[in-house]
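REQUEST ID: PR-0412
SUBMITTED BY: lab tech R.K.
PRIORITY: routine
TASK: structure prediction, single protein chain
INPUT:
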Amino acid sequence: MMRFVLSSLLLIIQSLATNAQTRLNIPLKKELDSLQILDQKYRQALIANMRGKGDSLAIVYRIKKEDLNDYLWKLQGELDSLNTFRVEEIINKYGYPGISLVGKPTNEVAFYIIQHSRVIDKYLPVLREAAESNELRFELYAIMLDRSLMFQDKEQVYGTQGSGIDVKNTKTGIWENLTFIWPIKDPLAVNERRKAAGFTQTVEEGAKNLGIKYKVFTLEEIIKLRNEVLQADKN
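STATUS: complete
OUTPUT:
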């Protein structure tokens, strides 16, 4: 009798698991997976160009090496616009396409497409709701929040965003690119906030992954530096 009960329970569990899988919107999942491929199509080539493979890429695309970066960004920008339009349609119809609708890791595709768009602020509340409902990893919402704040010239919260400014070396007179982690609100407590949000790395480790040596800058310092560079360009 006990074996029969256990067997019955096993069948019920398997049935529930199967039903959960069949509730996924498979056509939508496949479409989002295809959009993810488009989202990365030319970004991979851009990374390869940064790593010194521009000569071979210029041959492939039949374009001058010095024009390659702008050319690739133009192509990717066109794809990004199409991807954003489609993701907006999906969100308007279904809400954020999270785990319960398309499963993992497809539930992150819409995030990346919006992250590469000009409609971040419009969908930031949607991302927050998805994160708080466990439809999306909270740290992804945190990343988008930081990007939104940086674009508004405000302090970020979790220290996920890096930036750069071309500055003139006062000793050599040569223009150099200064990369830095965008200013953080209450930087002394940032690692506590990161841990609470689900990040496994400290802000220092995250900066290193971006190729940036972590240093605390205030918002006033960065804006002043940027204004000085703009003024130098005018002169």
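NOTES: The mean pLDDT is 89.
REVIEWED BY: pending
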